[in-house]
Q: What sequence folds into this?
């Protein structure tokens, strides 16, 4: 299931940028973070795809959403200038940002190549 993050849940589950200068992932599974807004057309097109991927990769990848209108500090911390923007966060490597609405096959490729995860059986 896709989980909506607030600043506090982001600090707890992804990266506590108030405590750490260097990137230190706080999660127990790799994740995708979708920076979106309710008024954004392309964001609305991506949302059902992320819902499907959350089911397909359950227990392997967490999928989070951050409303850039409600969480402007988080959007600013990552320099979000256009939406949708997605942050792919592997367990041990640096996160990678992708801007724009990606089709499902591109998201699955990023999960495989960046997050190093294959679909659950």
A:
């Amino acid at each position: 299931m896709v989980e909506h993050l607030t600043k506090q849940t982001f600090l707890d589950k992804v990266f506590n940028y108030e405590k750490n200068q260097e990137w230190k992932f706080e999660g127990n599974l790799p994740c995708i973070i979708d920076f979106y807004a309710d008024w954004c057309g392309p964001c609305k097109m991506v949302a059902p795809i992320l819902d499907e991927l959350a089911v397909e990769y359950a227990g392997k990848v967490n999928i989070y959403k951050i409303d850039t209108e409600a969480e402007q500090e988080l959007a600013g911390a990552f320099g979000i200038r256009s939406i949708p923007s997605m942050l792919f966060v592997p367990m041990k490597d640096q996160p990678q940002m992708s801007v724009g609405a990606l089709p499902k096959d591109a998201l699955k490729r990023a999960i495989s190549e960046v997050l190093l995860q294959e679909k659950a059986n």
